[in-house]
Design goal:
The chain is an alpha+beta fold and 151 residues long. It has four helices and eight strands, in the order H-E-E-E-E-E-E-E-H-H-E-H. Keywords: Signal.
Length: 151
């Protein structure tokens, strides 16, 4: 019996056993934001995923190159963002955003990545989010991302 308790204890202490969404910040009082723990370690780069449920519907651009109106805005209720953080160089890059129709994040309908032609070919404020930038510690989100990923 003691060997089974020891095995259960070892399994319970594994980081993957405690994986899940953890409160991150209130996003400047706009919405509660969560990050997925544990943070993925890719050596020099850490990968952090965040999830936000918005109190009101927001709009996300969707690019249709062959349409007359090239960009259409769609309502979304929640979103998940993936960031790559270089703790040594203190840089951050948004690599992916997944937008959901529902607040619980069950129905994804638009995904944008830094490699999308629409993102790479645009100079819009939305596309600029995907550019690698230095961490700005005066921004609470950047501060918290560094705090969580680089501990």
């Amino acid at each position: 019996m003691p060997q089974y308790l020891l095995i259960l204890f070892v399994i319970a202490m594994q980081p993957s056993a405690w994986a899940g969404w953890v409160y991150f910040t209130n996003n400047n009082h706009a919405s509660n934001e969560y990050y997925f723990a544990p943070v993925e370690d890719k050596g020099k780069v850490k990968v952090l995923r965040t999830f936000s449920q918005l109190p009101v519907d927001a709009k996300v651009p969707y690019h249709t190159p062959k349409a007359v109106v090239k960009v259409t805005l769609y309502n979304y209720a929640s979103e998940q963002s993936t960031y790559e953080l270089n703790c040594q160089d203190q840089t951050i890059q948004l690599t992916e955003r997944i937008f959901y129709r529902d607040g619980a994040g069950k129905t994804p309908f638009i995904t944008h990545t830094m490699k999308d032609a629409f993102i790479q070919g645009s100079n819009s404020e939305f596309a600029k989010q995907f550019i690698k930038t230095p961490l700005r510690f005066d921004d609470i989100k950047h501060y918290r991302i560094h705090e969580v990923a680089c501990k």
